[in-house]
## 1
Amino acid sequence: MFSILTLFLKKQTRLILIITLLIVISLCLVSYSIYTNSIKRYNDVVNSLNKIVSYYFAEEEKRVNRLADKIKNEHIKLSNTLSQHPENSEEIINKFQKMLIQESGSNADIALIGRDLIVASTTLPEEKNLDLKQFEDARIVAEEVLSKNNDNYVNITFPVYTPATNTFRIYTFSYIKNLDIFLQIGIDTEFLKFSPLIEINDKNLKASMYYSGGNNVLDTFDLVNKSNTTLPEAVRKFIISPEREFILDSFMLRKYFFKISDFNYMENVLGSIIVEISLNKKEIYFTILTLLLVELVFLIIIYITFVGNIISYKKSFFIPFRKILTSIKRGQPIEKYKKLKIKELLILSKNYNSIINSLHHKNREFERAIIEIKNLRDLLPVCSHCKKIRDENGNWHKLESYLSEKHQLDFTHSLCPDCIRALYPKYADEILKNLK
C-alpha cells in the first residue's frame, strides 16, 4: 500500500522524467540540425567560392598560355640573333629584355648558361656565375633540351613559382648549338591576380593557396603567407590522386582542398595549385552550447518549480490532510480548520466538526438522561394526595407533564377496571366484557 504523498511523488517524478527525456531528445535533434545545416551552408559558400576562383584562374591561364606562345616566338628570334651576332650577346640580351618588359608590362630576365650549367651572362648581375647544377629541375630541363638535338626546340616551363617575388614565371629554355650555350628567358605573369578573391569576410572561414608538386622534386609554397610549408600526409596523397576535391575534418576545423590547376612542371613531374578553405567550427559549437545552456536553465526552472510544488503541496495539503485523518481516527474535532488553504479540506473539516460536535452534544444529552433515569430509579418524590412529582428545583408537576418534559414521553388516557366499577357500577361488567 502507498500513501497519497508517495503515489503523488511517483506520478510527478514520472512526469518530470518524461518531460526531461523529451527535452533531451529534442535538444539532440535541434543540435544535430544546427550542426548539419551550418556545415551545409558553409559547403555551399565554399563551393561557390571554388567556382569563382576556378573561373578566374581558367581565364588567367588562357591569357598566360597566349603570352607563353608569344615568348616562345620571341625566344626563337633572340636565339637566331645571338647565333648571328655572338660577339654582341651582352648588348643583345639587354635590349631584348627592355623590349620584353615594354611589350608585356611585366618584369623579364634573360640568361646565357654554359654546358656546365654556370650562368655566363645575365640581365640579373647577382646571378652571374651562379651554378645551376644545384637545382634538380635545371639539370632535368637541360638534359631534355640536349636530348632533342634541335636548335629550334624550346622548352616552356610554366608555372614556375618564385618565392622571392611571390609570382609565377614563364621560363623558356633552349640550346644554341653553334655557341654551345643555353638560352633562358624568364618573365613574370599576373597569375596570382585572382588571389584577392580568396580573401573572405566571414570570420569563420580562412583561405590559403598552395603551389605544390606531385613528387619530391617540388617544394610546397604557401602563396598567401609567402613561405614554404608542409601539408599533411593525407593532403599530399590527395595532390597526386585524380580527385579534384578533398575534405579534412576534425573536431574544431573542417578544411576544404580544391585543385584549381594541374600542370606538368617538367616531364613526368606533376604540379598543382591548391586552394584551402578552413572552417572554424567554434561559432557553430557556441550556438549549440548557448542552446544547451538555455535548455539547462529551462530544466533547472522546471525542477525548481517541481520541488516548489511538492513543498507547497506537502505544506498546504498533505500535512493538513494527515492531521485531519489523525483527528478522525481519534474522534477529535479538527483544530484551526479555518486556516486551511485547500477548499476541499476546509469543507471536509467543517462538515466533520459539525458532525462530531452534534454527536458530542447527543452524547452529553444521553449521559444526562442516563443520570436522570438513575435518579428516578433511586428516588422520585410524589405527593401522597394529588400524586404530583417534585423536580430537582423543588417545583411540582403532574406526572404526565414531568415525564413528557424530562423524558420525551407521550401519554394516552384510559380507565382501569377498578375505576370503571367505581364510576360506572351498573355498566361495569358489560364494559369490561367488551374490552376483553
Note: The chain has a mean pLDDT of 80.
## 2
Amino acid sequence: MREENNNRCFRVRCTQRIMEHQEKEQAMPKLLYVYMKFQTFLKHIDAYLDGKAYFGDWSSMNDPMEGIPPRVQLEIKNEKVKKEFEAKLKECKICCLSERSDNFAMWSHYAERHTGVCIGFKVDNATLMQQDIEYAKIIYSDSMPLKKEYVPIIEAISKIEASGDIADSKTIENMKWQLVKKVLSHKFNDWSYEEEWRLMRLSSVPEMWSIGEIREIILGLECEQTLAKLKEHPCWGDLLPLIGKVKLEEKQGEIVFQLASPSVSLGMEYKVQKNGIAITKYTGTRREVDIPKIIAKTPVVTIGYLAFSNKRITSVSIPSSVTFIDDCAFATNELTSLIIPAGVTSIGEGAFCENKLENLEIPDSVIGIGERAFENNRLSCVAIPNSVRSIGYGAFEGNSLTSIIIGYNVEFGSSCFFSEADGEWHETEKDAFVYKGFSDFYKKNGKKAGMYTYNDGNWNFKAQ
C-alpha cells in the first residue's frame, strides 16, 4: 500500500512539474507570422481570412533533425514506450510561426524569393485551448534537447508502465504528449534567425485550424504579379485593409529592409462612426483607387467631405456598403466613368464636380442629389432613377446633355441641368433660350417619367 501511495505521489509530482513548466513559458508576442508561397495563400485564402492556419506533419519540416534527436532515442530504453513515443510523434501536427515579418532570408526561403506573402496572426489563447492546441517558443542550442528537459518525463512514463496501473492511462498519455512537445520545441542554433514559435496539436491528418485573427498580409519585394492576381480575387475588398508591403530604403547611406504597415498601404484615413466607417482622407498616390468594403471588420458606409478631392484620380471603385457620399468627396479629379453602387441614398454638393465624366450610372436607391454634384463634366446623357425626389441647383450644369431620362414628379430648379440664368454656357442666345426650355417642358408635360431628348432646337418626350 505504501509503495502504491509513493507511486501516486511520484506521478502527481511529475504532473505538477509539467504544469509549472508550462506556466513559466513566455507569453506569445502580439503578432506571429507565417511565410508562404503565393499559390499556397491563394488556395486557402478564405480559411486564412477566417483566422485559420495550416498544421502539417512533423516529417514535412525542412530540418532533417526534426523529431529524431539521437539522444532522445538512446534514452528511451523501454521498447514499448519508444514505439508509443514514435506513434505520438507521427500523430502531432505543427504550425510554424515567426516573431518577425522582415527577415530577408525567410522571405527568400519560404516565400518563393519575395513573390509570396507573409501573414500576421493575432493568436488567441482561448481559441487554442478550445481545440487542444498547445504552443511553445523554440529553444535553440548546440545540442537538442537537453537531458533535463526530457529524462524526468521518460522515467515517469517507464515507472508507471512498469506498475501496470491502467487507471493512470490518461496521465501516461499526457506525459507522452509533453515528451513529444519537448522534442519538437528544440532546434540547433543554426535556425535561431527564424525566432520561431510552434503550435502543436494531435490529429490524424494535416488540416486547417483556427488560431485567432488575421491582422496583416504582407507582400514581398517582387509582388507586382501577386498584387495583380489578388485584385482579381472575389475577396479583394476584404484583403485590401490588411495588405502591406516590404521595401528597401536608404537611410544614412545604408540600404535598409523596411516594412510598410497595412494602414500606409491602404492610403486612407478613416474614423469609426455609429453606423460604420467613414473615409476622411486619401493619402495614397495611386490614380486607380479601390475603396475597401470592410476596414477592421466594420463596413465602410460614408465617403467624407473632400476625402478624395484633387488627387488626379482616373478611376474609383466604390463598395456596395457605402450609403452616403459627402460634399466634394471626389471633386476636381480625372474620372471618366463612374458607377455609383446600389445602396447609396444621398450624393452631396459638388461630390463629383470638375471631372471628365462621360458615363454615369446612378442606382435607384438614390433619393437626393446635391447642388453642383456633377457640375462641369462631359456627360451627353444622364439617367435619373425613379427613386430620386430632389436635384439641387446646378447639379448637372456645365455638361453637354442632349438626353435626359428622368422619373415622375422630380423636384429641381431651373438651372439644374443647364446654365440658364444668363445664357453663358452656350455662345448664342438661341441656344441659351432652347436649353432654358427644358424645365418648362418637363413641367408642361406633367412631370412624366421618360426620356427627354433635344434635337433640332426642340425637346421631345418618349415614355418608358
Note: Residues 1-25, 421-436 have pLDDT under 50 and may be disordered.
